[in-house]
Amino acid sequence: MSNKGKKVKVHYTGTLDDGTKFDSSLDRGEPLEFTCMAGQMTPGFDAAVELMEQGETKTVHIPAADAYGERNEELVQRIPLDQIPNGNELPVGQTVYMQSGDGQIFPVFVQSIEDGVATFDMNHELAGKDLNFEITLVEIEG
Questions:
Q1: Structure pTM?
Q2: Considering Cα of 124, then 91, then 93, then 22, what sign does the dihedral take?
Q3: Which of 6, 70, 98, 117 holds its CA 20 to 30 A away from the CA of 80?
C-alpha cells in the first residue's frame, strides 16, 4: 500500500559510499516527519519510503541525480569583495547565508578569497554524491 500523501515519521542514518556518516535522526533522538511524495524530500528518499510498512527497515543507495543532483559549476561564482557588505570578514571554508534580490535567504559556501575576489559555491554540500540510507518507518499518520 502506498504512503503517497501520508504524513510519515522515519528514523534514518545517511552515509556516503566511503562509509562517512553525514546525518542521522537517531543522533538527534527525534524521527524525521514529512508528507511522503509531496516534494519535501529528495526524489530517491521519497521513493524509498513510499511503499514501506510501519516498523520496516530498509537500506537504499540513492544516486546523486535522485539525491541533491549533480554538481553544477555554474553555481560557483566569483564576486569582488568591494561588492559584498563586510566582504573582508567572510569565513573561508564555512557556509554563510546570503539574500537574493527578491529577499530569499540561501546558503553559500565560502570557497576562497584571493586577490580581492571571493569564490562562492552555491551547490548543496551533498551535490554530486551518491547517498546511502538505512531507513526505519516509525509511524504512518492517516
A1: 0.81
A2: negative
A3: 70
